[in-house]
Design goal:
With 114 residues, this protein is mainly alpha-helical. It has five helices and two strands, in the order H-E-E-H-H-H-H. It is 73% helix and 7% strand. It has a two-stranded antiparallel sheet. Helix 3 (53-67) runs antiparallel to helix 4 and helix 4 (71-82) packs antiparallel against helix 5. The longest helix is centred in the N-terminal third of the chain and has 29 residues, at 2-30.
Length: 114
């Protein structure tokens, strides 16, 4: 009888621990650091939620370039995005802020092969 109680106590502790880990993973996904530059993707996604498919494709490519540290390619994608006439003023401001952050990330990034 005691072993059953101990088993359920351990099982409950593990489940609570897993639930706590999940919350920290969600917090990490919202703001990610790339060479010391914080990018809040949830804010970016919320701002561009109603954007057209071409803009969504640019954002998808942009995230991939950031994930793999391809900042010059990300900068090209951001330039394409900033020249899109369908963007609102708040979207343009967010893109321009990310352009500045990307330039800082390029400066801080180690040279290829290191």
């Amino acid at each position: 009888m005691k072993t059953t109680k101990v088993f359920f106590l351990v099982l409950t502790s593990c489940l609570l621990g897993l639930a706590a880990c999940n919350k920290t993973d969600q917090a990490k996904q919202s703001a990610q650091a790339y060479h010391g530059i914080q990018v809040d993707w949830t804010k970016f996604d919320a701002e561009f939620a109603s954007a057209g498919p071409d803009v969504q494709g640019n954002i998808s490519s942009l995230k991939r370039f950031f994930r793999y540290g391809q900042f010059p390619e990300a900068l090209v994608e951001l330039d394409k995005l900033s020249s899109n006439s369908a963007l609102t003023e708040s979207q343009k401001k967010l893109v321009n802020d990310l352009i500045e952050q990307t330039k800082k990330a390029i400066e801080k990034a180690p040279p290829p092969g290191q």
